[in-house]
Design a protein that fits this description.
single chain; 3 helices
């Protein structure tokens, strides 16, 4: 792995992870950073899926059905986005390990 690639990838990864990682010593280790961000994204994806699955039960008393459907549509889009980012991070992590 070239230092130039690692530097560019590190900034790219930091843009996809929690803001606090910018202050963490983990930011100096691109492979570890990719792994940590993968775990964070997996957690976000699971939380988004759970929110989608429970939206009608948890929000049904407080929102109109069309509003709940709008929330679910937004959650579905967010889940798709997270899945895409998770796949991108996996590809970067694979490249870093070569």
């Amino acid at each position: 792995m070239s230092e130039d690639f690692a530097g560019k990838v590190t900034n790219w990864l930091l843009d996809r992870g929690p803001a606090d990682l910018r202050l963490s010593p983990i930011r100096h280790y691109p492979v570890a950073l990719a792994r940590v961000i993968s775990h964070v994204l997996e957690g976000q994806l699971e939380g988004t899926r759970r929110a989608y699955a429970n939206a009608r039960v948890e929000l049904g008393e407080h929102m109109q059905p069309v509003e709940v459907a709008t929330v679910q549509t937004a959650l579905e889009a967010e889940g798709a986005r997270l899945l895409t980012v998770l796949r991108e991070v996996a590809l970067v992590e694979e490249a870093l390990q070569r």
